[in-house]
Amino acid sequence: MKIEQIFANNQEWIRTKLNDDKDFFRKLVMGQTPEVLYIGCSDSRVTAEELMGARPGEVFVYRNIANMVNNTDLSAMSVINYAVSHLKVKHIVVCGHYHCGGVRAAMQAADLGILNPWLRSIRDVYRLHKHELDKISDEEEKYKRLIELNVQEQCVNVIKTADVQKAIKQNSLAVHGWVFDMSNGTLKDLKIDFDRILEEIMEIYRLI
Ligand code: CO
């Protein structure tokens, strides 16, 4: 994609938006009230807003390699804090995707330099669920399941934060784990049983 093309596309986008609603940009300036925080992978094929059919102002977005929610990632922690405590989002979604290069890399024995500590967290997910994963003999199926379990563990990491625990207690927030299947475009809700998971972990992670 040529850089010049991007600016031409931008002008075309402005025309389209103003055609639909002449006050479109005036409304954007007035502020945002998104109800969803979307945490997804940086992968260029997984276009957060486009695959959800969301318009500007509807979704607060945070993306990184393999949709990770790391305790020491100041950016992720700030995004969650701002979304929950200030924007008062009603939903936090962690959305993984099949064919994720980050998860694939974490399944292989390779020194990837600065990526090692980032991907190490995915290896930790593998270790946590080794019993289940080792029973899957088909490598592609195992890869898919690790992607799903990584989404589940990142949802758990979301719930480990104080802001989220407070909002859940007030019944104002729900956490969801999704996977995007790029082979057919489908967004799948993993229907993670958070009640069961929370029962198991809250004894250790409860902050409030
Ligand atoms: Co990915």
Structural write-up:
A five-stranded mixed β-sheet has the order 2-1-3-4-5. The protein contains ten helices and five strands. With about 210 residues, it is of the alpha/beta class. It has two domains: about 1-30, no CATH class; about 30-205, Beta-carbonic Anhydrase, Chain A (3-Layer(aba) Sandwich), CATH 3.40.1050.10. Helix content is about 50%, strand content about 15%. It is globular. The structure holds cobalt (II) ion. Cobalt (II) ion binds near residues 41, 66 and 101.
Compact summary:
The chain is built from 10 helices and 5 strands; from the N terminus they run ααβαβαβαααααββα. It has helices at residues 3-20, 24-29, 48-52, 74-86, 101-106, 115-128, 130-133, 139-159, 162-169, 194-205; strands at 36-41, 59-64, 91-97, 174-181, 186-189.
The total of beta strands comes to 5
Spatial extent as radius of gyration: 19 Å
Instruction: Output the CATH homologous superfamily of the largest domain.
Output: Carbonic anhydrase
What ligands does this structure carry? cobalt (II) ion
Major sheet details: 5 strands, mixed
> What is the N-to-C order of secondary-structure elements (H for helix, E for strand)?
HHEHEHEHHHHHEEH
Amino-to-carboxy terminus distance:
49 Å
Per the principal axes of the C-alpha atoms, what is the gross shape?
globular
Quote the average pLDDT. 95
Q: How many H/I helical runs?
A: 10
Given the helix and strand composition, which structural class is it? alpha/beta
- Strands of the widest sheet, in order across it, are 2-1-3-4-5
Helical residues, percent: 40-55%
Indicate how many domains the architecture comprises.
2
Low confidence ranges: none
CATH C-level class of the largest domain is: Alpha Beta
Strand content: 5-15%
Looking at the structure, the CATH topology of the largest domain is Beta-carbonic Anhydrase, Chain A
CATH architecture term of the largest domain: 3-Layer(aba) Sandwich
